[in-house]
Amino acid sequence: MEKEYLYVGHYRDINDRYILKIGTTNNLERRKKEHERNYKRTSENKMPANGSFVYDWFLKLSKYNTLRYEDKNRLAWQESQIGEYIRNDRFFCTVKPTEVQVKIRKVYTIPL
After folding, report:
1. What do you get for the CA distance between the two ends of the chain, in Å?
2. What pLDDT score does 43 carry?
3. How far lies 59's CA from each of 13, 49, 84, 101, 110, in Å?
4. In the predicted model, what is the mean pLDDT of the chain?
5. 31: region left, alpha or beta (phi > 0 left; psi from -120 to 50 alpha)
6. CA within 20 to 30 Å of 26's CA: 9, 53, 68, 76, which one?
């Protein structure tokens, strides 16, 4: 059975604002490069040319579970108003959170 990663990461945009992201991938290095390439081109919350995407946490799960838990946790973050939800499962945080929680079977507390 194929495994994928559920991850939490962040970057700072060109205005030094904290952008939090939850996502899934089967290859962390490839996905990091994709984020860096794409977020440097985007019109909103653009990553600076020398910026980088940083993984704060990841966990290997089945492909089905990564998608399911990504959706559930994204909704929980939206309800908790951790930040303003923006395209591509990102959150613009006016104040950088000290931690976030990801619930799978147990609750993982991720320091940021």
Report:
1. 31
2. 87
3. 25, 29, 25, 13, 12
4. 94
5. alpha
6. 76
The residues facing 92 across adjacent strands are: 19, 84
Residues 81 and 46: their CA atoms lie apart, in Å, by: 22
Is the CB of residue 84 less than 8 Å from the CB of residue 69? no
pTM to 2 decimal places: 0.93
Dist CA 52 CA 96 (whole Å): 17
- Whole-number Å distance between alpha carbons of 23 and 9: 8
Tokens of 110: 């991720």
What is the separation of C-alpha 73 from the centre of its chain, rounded to a whole number of angstroms?
11
pLDDT of res. 1? 66
**pLDDT tens, 4-48?**
999 999 999 999 999 999 999 999 999 999 999 999 999 889 999
Total domain count, the chain: 1
Residues in the chain: 112
Domain containing 70 equals: 3-111
Q: How far apart are CA 14 and CA 6, in angstroms?
A: 26
